[in-house]
Amino acid sequence: MNSAQKLGFPEETKLLIIHADDAGLSHSENMATIQSLENGMVNSYSIMVPCPWFYEMAVFAKNNPRFDNGIHLTLTCEWENYKFGPVLPISEVPSLVDGNGHFFGKREELRKNASAEDVGKELQAQIEKALKFGLRPTHLDSHMYSVGAKPEFFNIYKDLGEKYNLPVLINEQLMKMVGLNPLLNIEENDFLIDKTYVGKFEYFETGKLSTYYSWVLENLTIGLNIILIHPAFDDNEMKGVTVNHPNFGSEWRQIDFDFFTSRENKLKLQKNSIELVTWTDIKSGMGEAHKKGRSK
C-alpha cells in the first residue's frame, strides 16, 4: 500500500507536494517564496527559524494561514560568507557550533561533533520559537536533511513530530542521500513520502534543470510525491549569500522560481492528472487512518 492509499486516495492517484525550502534564509528567498505561493504552483514551504530573515517570513506565515508552512529544522550552515547559529545561547549547545559560534557547514562535521542532547535541545527550541511567535506549523522537515546525520538525531526528529503532533518528512531517498540506512531507521508506523524529487548539480551545470522538472511532471509516479525546490532571485543579495556555491546557488534558485511560476508549466499538472496535496491534508488523512485502525 502506497502513501496515497493510506490517505484514502485510489491506488493509481498521483499526489504531489511542490515544496519550497529555505524560507527565512534571506529577503530574496522570502519574496520569491511568497510570489511562488501566490502566483505559482508551490503549495508548501518551510521556514528556517535561526536565520536573520525569519521574522519577515514568520509575519507572512502568520498573516496567511491558508498556505501550508512547516519548520525547516536547521543544524548546518553551508555558505562561505553568510553565517548563522543556534537560537539557543551557544553555552547551552556548544557541540553544535564551530570556533566562531556558527553551525557547521557540512553534515559530516555535525555528525562528528554534535551531541544528541544538544541536537534535541536546539531543535525543540526552534519549534518553540516558531510557536511563541504565533505560527501554526503544518509539518517538520530538515535543512540539508541533517537530522539524518546520525540515527540518534533521526529518532529525535521523529519524537519531536510525535510530541507536537506534526507530520515529519521521512523518505528513503533522502535517508540514503545522507548515509542513513532506511532498513534500520524506518519503523512500522512511520508515514513515508513515496518519492522525492530534487534537482542535481549535473542538470543545472548542463542547463537542463528546467528540463528535469518538466520530466518529473510528465512522468510522476503514483503515490505521494514531493518536489523540493529553493526559489529565490538571482540578485546581489543571493549572489552574496551563495558566493562560490553554484550548487543550489542564486542562479539555480532563479530557475526554480521561473519554472514553478510559469502558467505553461502549471498546465502540466492537469495534463498529467496530478493532484496537489498539502501537509494539512496529510495530517488529516493520517488522523482518519489512525481512527479507523483504533476502531477495528
Helix and strand topology:
Blueprint: H1 3-6, E1 14-23, H2 27-39, E2 44-47, H3 54-63, E3 68-73, H4 107-113, H5 116-133, E4 140-142, H6 151-163, H7 172-177, H8 182-185, E5 195-198, H9 201-205, H10 209-218, E6 223-229, H11 236-241, H12 250-260, H13 263-271, E7 274-276, H14 279-295
Parallel strand pairs: 1-2, 1-6, 1-7, 2-3, 3-4, 5-6
Helix pairs in contact: 5-6
State the gist of this model:
The chain is α/β, with parallel strands linked by helices. It contains 14 helices and 7 strands.
Task: Please explain how this structure is put together.
Helices cover 45% and strands 12% of the residues. The protein is α/β, with parallel strands linked by helices and 296 residues long. The chain has a single domain, classed as TIM Barrel, CATH 3.20.20. Strands 1, 2, 3, 4, 5, 6 and 7 form a seven-stranded parallel sheet that branches. Helix 5 runs parallel beside helix 6. The radius of gyration is 18 Å and the shape is globular. The two termini are 18 Å apart. The mean pLDDT is 95.
Features of the shown structure:
single chain; 296 residues; TIM Barrel; 7-stranded parallel beta sheet; 7 strands
